[in-house]
Amino acid sequence: MHWIIYAVDKPSMLPTRTANVDKHREYLAAHPIRTLISGPLTDDAGTNMTGSFFLVEADSRAEVEAFNRNDPFWSLGIWESVDIHAFYKRVDDRAGAPQ
């Protein structure tokens, strides 16, 4: 099943985020939950990171919640809010993407 994680940063956390991005990336790479798409949310100019977006594959909400709680960005208190939603893909126009 696909899940979306939409996490908004606390306004003052950009320096902490930047200093710990390698730990965050290492965690994502090592975790058994498959991350299909992820990256930072940004302001409209694309210059300041304001949060995180993930599209992941997992069997249950509980797995996604645990995945999120163990992320270094969570434990460092970077995110002000985190929303998790089940997602049903209807269209994917990326080249080679399964429909």
From TrEMBL:
Coiled-coil region list: none
Positions of the YCII-related domain: 1-87
Keyword Heme among record annotations: no
InterPro entries cross-referenced by the UniProt entry: Dimeric_a/b-barrel, Sec-metab_biosynth-assoc, YCII
Pfam family, one: YCII
Keywords of this entry: Plasmid
Keyword Protease on entry: no
SUPFAM superfamilies in the record: Dimeric alpha+beta barrel
Family: Belongs to the YciI family.
Protein name: YCII-related domain-containing protein
Species whose genome carries this gene: Cupriavidus necator (strain ATCC 43291 / DSM 13513 / CCUG 52238 / LMG 8453 / N-1) (Ralstonia eutropha)
Phylogenetic classification of the source organism: Bacteria, Pseudomonadati, Pseudomonadota, Betaproteobacteria, Burkholderiales
